Amino acid sequence: GATIGILGGGQLGRMMALAAAQLGYCAHVYAPEPRAESVAAQVSAAYTQGTYDDEAALAAFAAQVAVVTYEFENVAAAPLAAILPHAALFPPARALEVAQDRVNEKSFVETLGGRPAPWMQVDGAEDLARAVATIGAPGILKTRRDGYDGKGQWRIMTPADAAGLDLPAVPLIYEGFVEFFGEFSVILVRAQDGSVQFWDSARNEHEDGILARSTVPAPAEIAAQVPAARALAKQVAAALDYVGVLTLEFFATQDGPVFNEMAPRVHNSGHWSIEGAIASQFENHVRAILGLPLGSTELVTQGAVMDNLIGEAADAWPQLLADPANHLHLYGKAETRPGRKMGHVTRLVQ
Ligand code: ATP
Ligand code: MG
Ligand code: MG
């Protein structure tokens, strides 16, 4: 079979490569770390170590693959133009530009009628004082770019907290704290003909800013907010000429769904779909970028619960494996670190 090119060498790329292999395709990973440090490389035929702004290296990589995708959105969009003479890039670079910057993604979603938390751009201490005075506290100060798993975030409970902060010299955003009764994600796949399918929305529970558990189906009070959230996600996908899997995260509130952020890629809250859906998010992403027909996103049982194995929680894998109902996934990371996603375990609800 042909080869798909994947930008990014983490566990999402690894699971994409495994799905591609099942369909007879090879994977070629492009990432900045040495090959031995990439968990995607462990299951891929080829690897290029290169930076995401090296246009010559990106072009040479693209010349060796049928299509390029990414598992990591913190890649500058402009240098990716070097890929286009050689291979298609899906999702398109515009999706990266929008999703990798919290100001861009919130403004973009607002133009489509979506509702994020109240927010203001912050470029310095004066901006922050003004934002806290305008929006109020509590709130969260976040880096506009490069954040994940709650990294690059500061909770601000009072204006005095803001005044005492030693601000990092990067673009920031201040968001009002959303009083939510639950969190959920919408994950869709959009094919090259523009058709869209959704997986069931999971209820997502976070601990210390990191996803801990995703449960499908979500409870009724969350499920009631999914249609409005899906309508927004579908508009986002159409406006971006999107191809592949797209994720939007939402807060479920008394006033309806509040948009949190989007990821132009497969998502941790969709890992349950590997065993829990007829076609997983990884398989349908691969199918979509290759222009193949999509598989059904329907549940295969009543539901599923996915627990992340974070840090040393993964050391308990022998006990997890001893329960024959568990679907255990370990990502092959050599080093266990606190807060690091080492694997996950899924249980189907019969
Ligand atoms: P991810 O790993 O999902 O990309 P991230 O680092 O981009 O995470 P966010 O999704 O912005 O972080 O925030 C992580 C979690 O912190 C959210 O899922 C939510 O639980 C909480 N949170 C973030 N922003 C807000 C907010 N404005 N109001 C209330 N809670 C929030
Ligand atoms: Mg994020
Ligand atoms: Mg998030």
From TrEMBL:
Listed InterPro entries: ATP-grasp, ATP-grasp_carboxylate-amine, ATP_grasp_subdomain_1, PreATP-grasp_dom_sf, PurK, PurK_C, PurT/PurK_preATP-grasp, Rudment_hybrid_motif
One Pfam entry name: PurK_C
Record-listed E.C. numbers: 6.3.4.18
Highest taxon listed in the record's lineage: Bacteria
Residues binding ATP, per UniProt: 102, 142, 147-153, 175-178, 183, 206, 260-261
Keyword Ligase: yes
Domain ATP-grasp, residue spans: 106-290
Record keywords, A-Z: ATP-binding, Ligase, Nucleotide-binding, Purine biosynthesis
Pathway annotation: Purine metabolism; IMP biosynthesis via de novo pathway; 5-amino-1-(5-phospho-D-ribosyl)imidazole-4-carboxylate from 5-amino-1-(5-phospho-D-ribosyl)imidazole (N5-CAIR route): step 1/2
Catalysed reactions, semicolon-separated: 5-amino-1-(5-phospho-beta-D-ribosyl)imidazole + hydrogencarbonate + ATP = 5-carboxyamino-1-(5-phospho-D-ribosyl)imidazole + ADP + phosphate + 2 H(+)
Gene Ontology molecular function, alphabetical: 5-(carboxyamino)imidazole ribonucleotide synthase activity
Family: Belongs to the PurK/PurT family.
Assembly and interaction partners: Homodimer.
NCBIfam families per UniProt: PRK06019.1-2 (NF004676), PRK06019.1-5 (NF004679), purK (TIGR01161)
Role, per record: Catalyzes the ATP-dependent conversion of 5-aminoimidazole ribonucleotide (AIR) and HCO(3)(-) to N5-carboxyaminoimidazole ribonucleotide (N5-CAIR).
Record protein name field: N5-carboxyaminoimidazole ribonucleotide synthase
Name of the gene this protein is made from: purK
